[in-house]
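ok so for the tutorial part 2 we go from a plain amino acid sequence to predicted structure tokens. step 1 is just haveing the sequence, like this:
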Amino acid sequence: MVSERTLLERLADPRPGAPRTVAQNTDLLAESVLKHLRRMLNSWHGQTPTMPDYGIPTLSELVHSFPESNAILSKAIRLSIEKYEPRLRRIRVGICELDDDPLNVQFDISADLVTADEKAAIRLETRVDADGRVEVR
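step 2 — the prediction. this is what the tokens look like for a chain of 137 residues:
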């Protein structure tokens, strides 16, 4: 059974008064995945010594591959999610062109949330600004 919250989330907030159940809360699971993706997509390759490929490449690594850099970043996001977020399956990352702001790029991420009983899909908008920060909603 997939846990709704990561081990670190459970240690930080053990919720001692919460009732014990084997039922899975899909909303808590989706929120936990969203928090992890925010952390992961705002981490750069090489930032975590034990997992050098955790996160995404820095924008300075991609600037020399323009105009293919968006496709490279899209693939890096998908590969990182596939490797480090086992609660998602069938991950798709699409590029959205932003005519109003050429210094920002937006990706749509859609995937299936791995749950015990029900099918659940998740769709996220990811916007990368000129400073390299990633906003995930």
